Amino acid sequence: MNKNTICLWYDKDAEEAAHFYARTFPDSSVGSVYRAPGDFPGGKQGDVLTVEFSVCGIPCLGLNGGPEFPQTEAFSFQIATDDQEETDRLWNAIVDNGGQPSACGWCKDKWGLNWQITPRVLTEAIADPDPAAAKRAFDAMMTMHKIDIAAIESARMG
Fold first, then answer.
1. Where among 49, 68, 87 does a domain terminate?
2. Are residues 20 and 97 in the same domain?
3. How far apart are CA 130 and CA 38, in angstroms?
4. Closest CA to 47 of 56, 39, 55, 59
5. Cβ pair 109, 116 in contact under 8 A
6. What is the pTM for the complete model shown?
């Protein structure tokens, strides 16, 4: 077991979510699945209780804890992308699998977990040493759901 693992609370679909993440994100996998040794509130003996998985190399534990604690935007995975193709593939995988788009590169998967699909170009643009270029890129980002790299670059250049 890792010294530090992110524990993510799911209603009841932690294993399904883990397999989706493993199929979607590079350097991601599903490890051990643990079943409840006895009945528990909201579940019964033999139900999946937890599942070990990783997302882009980050160790996680999915806990099927029930509906009491839904995910919020207070926690998200930020995935740095290298180009528009990768940005589109990851964003579309999440949104097209029952997720929801949000603003500025954020989206939510069907289990309620929040993702920031962030092209490296965007991060570089809003950190531009020229404050006017950074502001133009930032202002362009503020109008977007999925990030359009060409539009960010164009705004940055003026």
1. 68
2. no
3. 61
4. 39
5. no
6. 0.94
> Are residue 6 and residue 64 in the same domain, yes or no?
yes
The per-residue pLDDT of the chain, averaged, comes to: 96
| Residue range(s) defining the domain that contains residue 116 | 71-158
Residues 157 and 89 in one domain: yes
Closest CA to 120 of 89, 147, 155: 147
49-62 pLDDT, tens digit each: 999 999 999 999 99
Task: Tell me how crowded residue 23 is: count the other CB atoms within 10 A of its CB.
Answer: 11
Amino acid residing at 97: N
Per-residue DSSP letters for 47-99? Answer: SEEEEEEEETTEEEEEEE--TTS---TTSEEEEEESSHHHHHHHHHHHHHTT-
Reported confidence tier of residue 25, pLDDT bands at 50, 70, 90: very high
